[in-house]
């Protein structure tokens, strides 16, 4: 019997790859919705909401159940990757968790000190903008955005402009406001450039 | 490169504009791809994504947690794309030259292309949401405002049609 789902997944991806995301314009969305001038209210609502967030001990697992993956990683592959290893803990108490599968799928998750967070999955070494996996996510405890990344083994520091960010267990956290600065990974494996903005989908 | 993203704010969390921004930034290209397939035009598709997210923001106060937030956004984007729809056939697929799959088996690509083009609109949209957007049956049911059983039956019919296409094409 033909494995129809497998055939469809494989061939549809080849038939219509993901389009270019360069036209992303969140400010335009806000303008369309009439929200552009209501930022202060949004910030207040965000603060109040964050105050009532219940700590989710199994947050990352629940998150995986809500997830969806595509592109070079199928949904099943993405969901099969469990970010269960704490790679680093930030001064604010947030944790970056990582994991990978035998199929070479890597995943990372960011868990704020109050349990909120998010995650992503993908392959390392397949991106034209740098051999890393990164995402921008909201720290729901401090109400600040962060870029979280996972890099291949052999790199110990991330240089972003004039700032040096330590890499712990292949993971890093960096301020999104630095994303426009030239970035590079360096360590025993050598030095390679990164486009943080593109990697994080900004 | 961000391939996908999930959001978890803990139990009891009411979605905020910031949640939608995170979803937009991580999944824009997936929304755009499905919108392109519906509208057959990348400009209209981008407009549909923008309007879909804007509509979701406007209706945030009335969101009562009926279904996952992402499915709720998908519904708004799909509806916006349908309004922009120029014609029902998947023109982008017809004109697109697919990349070779890893094993170089182009026959399967053309077979799937033929299959997608032959699907009735509802089946085709369900296939897009399942395989391009990566939604599960419950999420698709929320987007299309139908029962989960209807989604299952629709995909089964689409799969049956593909099997028939496979059997009809000489190997």
CATH superfamily of chain B: PhyR, sigma-like (SL) domain
From the 3D structure, determine the CATH topology of chain B. Answer: Butyryl-CoA Dehydrogenase, subunit A, domain 3
CATH class of chain B: Mainly Alpha
Beta percentage of chain B is under 5%
- The geometry of chain A reads as globular
Specify the number of helices of chain B: 8
Helices and strands of chain A, in N-to-C order? HHHHHEEEEEEEEEEEH
Q: Write down the oligomeric state.
A: heterodimer
**Helical residues, percent of chain B:** 55-70%
Low-confidence stretches of chain B at least 5 residues in length (pLDDT < 50)? Answer: 1-12, 87-104
Name the overall outline of chain B. globular
For the structure shown, list the relevant keywords.
A: 202 residues; alpha+beta; four-stranded antiparallel β-sheet; 6 helices; 11 strands; 25% helix; globular; B: 171 residues; mainly alpha; 8 helices; 67% helix
Tell me what you see in this structure.
- The complex is a heterodimer of chains A (202) and B (171).
- In chain A, the strands form three sheets. A four-stranded antiparallel beta sheet of chain A has the order 1-2-3-4, with helices on one face. In chain A, strands 8-7-10-11 form a four-stranded antiparallel beta sheet, with no helix packed on it.
- The N and C termini of chain A lie far apart (43 Å).
- Chain A has helices at 4-15, 26-33, 39-51, 59-66, 75-79, 196-199, and strands at 85-89, 95-100, 106-111, 117-122, 133-139, 144-150, 157-160, 163-166, 171-174, 183-187, 190-194.
- Chain A has two domains: 24-53, no CATH class; 54-199, no CATH class.
- Chain A has 202 residues and is an alpha+beta fold.
- Chain A contains six helices and eleven strands.
- In chain A, 44% of the residues are buried.
- Chain B has one domain: PhyR, sigma-like (SL) domain (Butyryl-CoA Dehydrogenase, subunit A, domain 3, Up-down Bundle), CATH 1.20.140.160.
- Mean pLDDT of chain B is 78; it is low at 1-12 and 87-104.
- Chain B is mostly helical and 171 residues long.
- Chain B is globular and about 50 Å long.
- Chain B contains eight helices and one strand; from the N terminus they run βαααααααα.
- In chain B, 67% of the residues lie in helices and 2% in strands.
- The interface between A and B is large, with 77 and 65 residues.
- Strand 4 of chain A pairs antiparallel with strand 1 of chain B.
